[in-house]
Backbone:
């Protein structure tokens, strides 16, 4: 086992690769598909048949996506992502009053 220290030890190659991969995962911006099920808040009103904007707090980062909904939603409405429409657009549904402080 001592011969594998350069691979498996605290400063070993595999340990460094794993740590680099984890850092990369936490730095990347979540895709619209990864946001399905996340809760957010409307920051630009969503009109009937049109798009507005929704703000999310994901992995400690604040993200804003274009969003549409089946019913018009006013500024400040709590929503949950129901579908990804494109890499930069989502569909949301109204949630109700906030239970947490994000966003």
Residues:
């Amino acid at each position: 086992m001592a011969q594998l220290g350069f691979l498996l030890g605290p400063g070993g190659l595999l340990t460094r690769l794993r740590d680099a991969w984890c850092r990369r995962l936490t730095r990347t911006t979540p895709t619209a598909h990864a946001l399905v099920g996340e809760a957010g808040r409307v920051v630009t009103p969503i009109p009937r048949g049109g798009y507005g904007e929704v703000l999310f707090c994901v992995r400690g980062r604040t993200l804003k996506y274009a969003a549409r909904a089946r019913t018009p939603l006013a500024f400040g409405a709590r929503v949950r992502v129901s579908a990804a429409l494109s890499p930069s657009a989502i569909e949301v549904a109204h949630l109700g009053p906030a239970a947490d402080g994000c966003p």
